[in-house]
Amino acid sequence: MSIRRITENVYELNLGKSNAFLIDDEKLTLIDTGEPDRSGQILELLASIGREPDDLKHILLTHSHPDHSGSAADLKAITGAKVYMHAAEKKWVEAGFVPKPDHPYFTGVVNRLIYQMFIAKAPGSITPCAVDQLVSDGDWLPIAGGIQAVHVPGHSEGQLAFFFPGAKNVLFAADACDNLFGLGYSTFYEDYETGRHSLEKLATFDFDVACFGHGRSILRGAGAKFCRKFIGHHHHHHPVRAQKAQGTGEAVRMREREEKI
Ligand SMILES: [Zn+2]
Ligand SMILES: [Zn+2]
């Protein structure tokens, strides 16, 4: 368990099996909460940077898997923070039970083994946690100057990534992919094809720093790495979403990355 500052106002919390992230904007926003029973450790890490439980105001859940939503209920009870997530997985977090996919898809033998050893037998139960606010694709949350939710299904149906322009452009990629053995596909997908489309979508964002549920954050040139890894092999051209973004006139900081590939 450790905490490291990765940008002026973003901290990476290594909680053992998974990561959580903290955005420090006077008040604190936590992205994911680790497994059940991690709340004490998370609050210790907050204390180590001079912050108190009361400072935590927002908890953004990327998805319902117990290694991400496990300590949400405890943290909410202790701090009074508001919990945000996508509608598609709200029911699991509120019921306190997160089912495993019937037919998980693995991108390789190693990932299949990791799943069989660590995930298949892990309990699906968490302390039930009421969700305060539902978040949809494209929503800008008025937190820390603006955080955009990006729906990235595939690993799980209601998974959200978060794009945080802030001082540096940071993408919280959740389990859309991981950085365990270098940047790569996640351990498993409920729907791999959908998961690959989600990664193409993420690669259209303009970010320097990428943060993952599993593996260390990439601190430089992360957007270009996503393009090379997740777009380069499959397509020569991916202008659709970038054009759409320009059309909306929103400050979504997306642009065509074609020239970089
Ligand atoms: Zn997951
Ligand atoms: Zn995970």
Automatic annotation (TrEMBL):
InterPro entries: Metallo-B-lactamas (IPR001279), NDM-1-like (IPR050855), RibonucZ/Hydroxyglut_hydro (IPR036866). It holds the Pfam family Lactamase_B. It comes from the Bacteria. Residues 17-214 form the Metallo-beta-lactamase domain. This is MBL fold metallo-hydrolase. It comes from Chitinophaga pollutisoli.
